[in-house]
Structure formats: structure tokens, C-alpha cells
Automatic annotation (TrEMBL):
This is tRNA N6-adenosine threonylcarbamoyltransferase. Gene3D superfamilies: 3.30.420.40. It catalyses: L-threonylcarbamoyladenylate + adenosine(37) in tRNA = N(6)-L-threonylcarbamoyladenosine(37) in tRNA + AMP + H(+). One of its GO terms (cellular component) is cytoplasm. Substrate binds at T133, V134, S135, G136, G137, D166, G179, D183, N274. Fe cation binds at H110, H114, D302. Its EC number is 2.3.1.234. Belongs to the KAE1 / TsaD family. GO terms for molecular function: iron ion binding; tRNA N(6)-L-threonylcarbamoyladenine synthase activity. CDD domains: ASKHA_NBD_TsaD_bac. Residues 23-308 form the Gcp-like domain.
Amino acid sequence: MSVILAIESSCDDTSVAICNNGKITANVIANQTIHENYGGVIPELASRVHQQNIVPTIEQAIKNAKVTKQDINAVAFTRGPGLLGSLLVGVSFAKSFALALNIPLISVNHMHAHILAHFIDDPKPNFPFLCLTVSGGHTQIVLVKDYFDMEIVGETLDDAAGEAFDKTAKILQLPYPGGPLIDQHAKLGNPKAFKFAEPQIADLNFSFSGFKTSILYFIRKQEKENPNFIAENLDDICASVQHSIVQILLNKLKKAAKQYHIKEVAIAGGVSANSGLRNGLQETAEELGWQIYIPAFQYCTDNAGMIAIAGYHKFLKNDFVGQEVSPMARMEF
């Protein structure tokens, strides 16, 4: 029997989940809207709001799961990677909570947890499988051999796919966070209306820096000729950008699946909530006979449910850490 409380505070969302014998019974997320005023996450503000949110979020998760503090057997937390100030709030609270109840601590790698989110609900992937993990800070293709035996076989050499969405949104003067807004506009536009420079990387790695630059130069050139170009073509621009990013991601994923002879394929991370990527993966799966796995929306973006399930599998191995543990902004995969 195990009841695990999990805390996720790597960026700007404060999240707390309860995992009861491998089943997520609560997953509470407190968002921070203050960053919308600045067009991006301000680390100092994020850590302060985490301090305000963490106690009520914990209380709500415990209430939703219908457990008491005394029922909890361990505390799992995101150690890294992430914003150091934000991580510090979650780690410090987890240590205090565990110390007060005299229960063990479980350290979780944020990127491992995104992948292990696939083991929350059925159907669950079979090992080995490939996971494309795409978020604002990471773009990776991971060969997953077991719960904690994972190998990065491809990653971005510069910017992440999520960054490409966010920076494009900024160029288009869409409010923060812009990625989901591009997705909304893309549904109304023509994905082949405009073409942008796609990176030519021979192996399984990605590059989005040049792609972002090509969008910026394209928009500048068009606006010189027509100052209303963005307003008049917003849906088509978003559809074309989204189509390009999705194709870059899927082409590498197809290459990896062929190289490793794997037909079990998953996606994870915040960008896995993107409808274009989900639809593109579905079409590719039908074409190539893949078995695909996509987490529920609540487990795509940063959330404690994925930390809880990772913590559960570490709990089964008695993989605990001591009170000397500290957060790591950069954490090895």
C-alpha cells in the first residue's frame, strides 16, 4: 500500500497530486496569470507566487483525494531541471513536509516524469518505445527501455519546438502564452499558404533557431509591402508555421522509429497538447502501423500527476533521497 504526495514547481505552475497505489486520485494545478503582463515567465515573480500557492494547493489535493496527511507514505518532488527559485519552493516544502511526518523523500527528474505520464492511464506503452518529448525548454527523442532506463537519441541543438511556437506568437503580437493561440488560429488557416526554411540536420537532432529567424524575416518583408499583412493572414501564417514545426518533429520521429525498429511511439510535454501534432502523429501511425500513446491533456503540460507516477515507481524500488537534497536548475537526464 502506498499513498504518495507529489509536488511540481519547475516553472510557473504550482501543482500537487496524490498517487494511491499507482492511481492518480488528485491532480491540482494553480496557474500564474501575472506573467501575461510581461510576455513571458519572470523567475522572481514565479517563485514568490509559488510560495503563495503551495499550501492551498496541497490542502486541495489532499481533500480531493479523500486522504489525510497521516495516510501519506512518501513525498515526491521535482528536483530539476527548471527555474531554480521555483524549484527551491517545491523542494523546501517537500523536505519540511516529509520531515514533519517522518516519511521518505523521492527525487524526480522533470523530463523523466513527462515520459512516465504515459503510465497513469490505459493503454500504457510496452518497452521499448520511443517518446518525442516537446516543451518550451526541451525537444528530445528518447528511447525508453524501462521506467528509469532511458536514452536520448535526438535533441535540439539550439531552441526547443515550444520556443519556436512562443517566439512566433510574439512576432505575431499574440498575447502570452502564445503557443495555444497559434494552434487555435491554425485550425482556421491553410497549412500550405506559406513556406519557411526548414533545418537540414543529418542525424536525429533538431534545430529551430534558423526556422525562427526565417519566420521573422518573412514577416518583416511582408509588412513592408503591406502593413496589415499579419491581421489579414493570421490564420494562414499560424497554420503554415504549425504545419512546418509538426513536419520537422514527425520526420525525425519516423527516422528514429526506422533506425531502432520500433513501432511503439509516444509523445509527451506541453507541445504534445497541440492538435496539429496529435493529428499528424495519428496519420503517421496509420501510414506506418505504429501503436501510439498520447497522454490526457491534464498530463501534457507541467503537472504533479506525472511526478506522482514517477515517484510511485521509485517508491516500489525504495529509491529515496535524504534531507540534504537540493534543487538543480540543470539536471542530467
